[in-house]
Amino acid sequence: xxxxxxxxxxxxxxxxxxxxxxxxxxxxxxxxxxxxxxxxxxxxxxxxxxxxxxxxxxxxxxxxxxxxxxxxxxxxxxxxxxxxxxxxxxxxxxxxxxxxxxxxxxxxxxxxxxxxxxxxxxxxxxxxxxxxxxxxxxxxxxxxxxxxxxxxxxxxxxxxxxxxxxxxxxxxxxxxxxxxxxxxxxxxxxxxxxxxxxxxxxxxxxxxxxxxxxxxxxxxxxxxxxxxxxxxxxxxxxxxxxxxxxxxxxxxxxxxxxxxxxxxxxxxxxxxxxxxxxxxxxxxxxxxxxxxxxxxxxxxxxxxxxxxxxxxxxxxxxxxxxxxxxxxxxxxxxxxxxxxxxxxxxxxxxxxxxxxxxxxxxxxxxxxxxxxxxxxxxx
Length: 379
Prior knowledge:
Layout: H1 3-7, H2 13-19, H3 23-37, H4 39-45, H5 50-59, H6 83-95, H7 101-107, H8 114-123, H9 136-146, E1 153-160, H10 165-174, E2 179-185, E3 191-196, H11 201-217, E4 226-229, H12 233-236, H13 246-252, E5 258-261, H14 271-285, H15 293-309, H16 321-328, E6 342-343, H17 344-352, E7 360-362, E8 371-373
Parallel strand pairs: 1-4, 3-6, 4-5
Antiparallel strand pairs: 1-2, 2-3, 7-8
Helix pairs in contact: 3-4, 4-5, 7-8, 11-13, 11-17
């Protein structure tokens, strides 16, 4: 490199180093140039300083590996976490493998910094895979939904639980439910759950009617509420139907309330309820252990209470659903987040076998008792 070429270099040494794919090759050229022309000419040629040139000349031993940058981390860390603290972090991570460092700190009330928790998990090979950051569009939608009214839109969906490895064995051994019915208020994140062994228009209708009745009993105005679902048969009925399904009729029985379906295949429209499905897979089905159907429904009920009253949501101002409801409606009924989780097939059975005003007495099959079925309008 001649002097004229060196003087034409527009970038400083550290700028070139940051942009170089392999800085060792540039340092090799710099060291060889300094040996041939001297330290100060090399400093001028590479837009560096004599001190930097001497540092790499001193380290260079004829091998390219000697020009690798040394770590600047301190050799001794006086505030390094103790072995006991590391074991506490690792125990929490092993209990909830898919929790992030921030979530571990929050849920297990760890007193250590998020970066320290992440470092410990990374050093022991327990860090979860890197996830792409949320796109700008999703962040803007969150800002818009934040200003919506309570129950302006309720997203409802179902989840097949058979594809969760940790849940598969108790599902088969204990006859646990195969499907989760989920409804969530978009503005506050308020969650309602139901379970059944099949996808059914009747179960979805009972689930929605139960939530509507609960919200009305708590004094919530549903005159302009929108229920949004996908195009599953449990919500829209048969594709050959010429009239609204029972689910749509149940929703729109409340004056001003409407049922809307998303465009086919566009599941991102159901992002709020799909997020809950992912969270419950990480925080409930992969973590909890069940010994009976009664214990399962009790733990599901406790998780719903935890989600509505205690779990802070980073996507909703880092607040719980009840905190957001209290801000939007200071006089809201304290019973709002307390609707219990039920087996929808049992509720359906109770409706079919409960006596109703009017109707017809119908003899059941020989293996069943006599049943009194209510009129269709009552169901």
